[in-house]
Amino acid sequence: MTATVVQGFRRYEFTSTVTNFLSTLAKEMNTYPYEDVNWKVTYYPKDPYSQPKAYNSQNQPYSNPLGAVTLENINDASLFFTLSLNLSVSYGWTTFGYQLRCGLNRPTVGEEPYPDVSLAIGEESNIPFHTSSNNVTLNITYKWTVFPLKEAIFIFGEAITNIGNAYPFRLYMGNVTSYEKEDPAIKNDFVGIFSHAPIGNDTNWANNNLYSVGRGVVRTSRNNKKYELYNFCTSAQATSPGSGNRYFVSPWYVFQPKEGVRGEFQQMRSAVFKDANQHPDGSMIDLDGKRYHVFHVTDQQQPTSYKYWVDISGQTRYIQPYFFDSNTLLGDGQRAILFELPTEGSK
């Protein structure tokens, strides 16, 4: 385990296979003296909702549960997430790969974690780890970097094995900062889960070329619709010159085609440095009165073929994994994510 602690900001780094990811995540964030100050992570090894199903009979379990975690914000009860590890299974018990099913609401007392997002809008919201190449399930080893922020968690995974089939893993879970004054009735519900796996076949999104844009689900839209789909993107693909303190720093904008841009991710920015040596990974940088932790991003190449996965209904979901504007940088340079650090004047 590697844990970086600076000014109340924490960064966890570890390596694990997909099947050990959730249990290792909980262990790393709960190990003294590095217990996280913002998030409580609980592992449920026998969560029944993570039990793999056969798609020819979705009520029929086919093997033991694969486990789940809950991520509970210590300071804000409205921030609660569930991740359940699952397998999709075809006729004849042929497996098609590991996926995460997600939840945004607390279960009632005594219940196991509940992946309500998947159940509410369908298995198209699942987050796959790898392509469904030749019907093989790959227990890929990833290098994980986890950033538990005050009101969000960002998880970054780069494959170490099976790189030709592995998706570069990206997952943001947390509050979304609204650009407009909020209706008090929905103020605390602009909370979402946004991953590298765009949802490709929803009828509301069919004409939007959404195979090449990031997407996720929010608990309540700004128009008060439950489990609404939202896009997200940055505008940081060009290299900053870095001279005269000029840097092109971009938020992750969150938008919905029917609503327009409505907000952005919490405490995260994207940039491309011309000279990365000036700002090494793990360093701090001051920009526009704010201080940031610098995380260098090595853009893992996308799988070369079989860019789809199979859900537990047996349906093929074609995707182009996506988190940044593209893996290609204009003018070379080093892509970085900037995480806002607390300052003396921040709350």
Give structural notes.
The relative contact order is 0.15. Mean pLDDT is 82; it is low at 203-208. The chain contains 2 helices and 23 strands. The two termini are 29 Å apart. By secondary structure, it is mainly β. The strands form 4 sheets. Strands 3, 4, 5, 6, 7, 8 and 9 form a 7-stranded mixed sheet that branches. Strands 12-13-14-15-16-17 form a 6-stranded antiparallel β-barrel.
Secondary-structure topology with pairs:
Layout: E1 2-6, E2 9-17, H1 21-29, E3 39-44, E4 53-54, E5 57-61, E6 68-73, E7 80-89, E8 95-103, H2 116-121, E9 127-128, E10 141-148, E11 152-159, E12 169-178, E13 191-195, E14 214-220, E15 226-233, E16 253-256, E17 260-265, E18 268-273, E19 284-287, E20 290-296, E21 308-310, E22 316-318, E23 334-340
Parallel strand pairs: 4-7
Antiparallel strand pairs: 1-2, 2-10, 3-6, 4-5, 6-7, 7-8, 8-9, 10-11, 11-12, 12-13, 12-17, 13-14, 14-15, 15-16, 16-17, 18-23, 19-20, 20-23, 21-22
| Beta-strand share of residues | 35-45%
Quaternary state reads: single chain
Task: Please state the CA-atom Rg, rounded to the nearest Å.
Answer: 19 Å
Percent range of helical residues? under 10%
Q: Which structural class do you get from the secondary structure elements?
A: mainly beta
Uncertain stretches of 5 or more adjacent residues = 203-208
Query: Which sequence of SSEs, written as H and E, runs from N to C?
Result: EEHEEEEEEHEEEEEEEEEEEEEEE
Separation of the first and last Cα atoms: 29 Å
Taking the sheet with the most strands, its summary is: 7 strands, mixed
The tally of strands reads: 23
Number of helices in the DSSP assignment: 2
Average pLDDT number:
82
Shape: globular
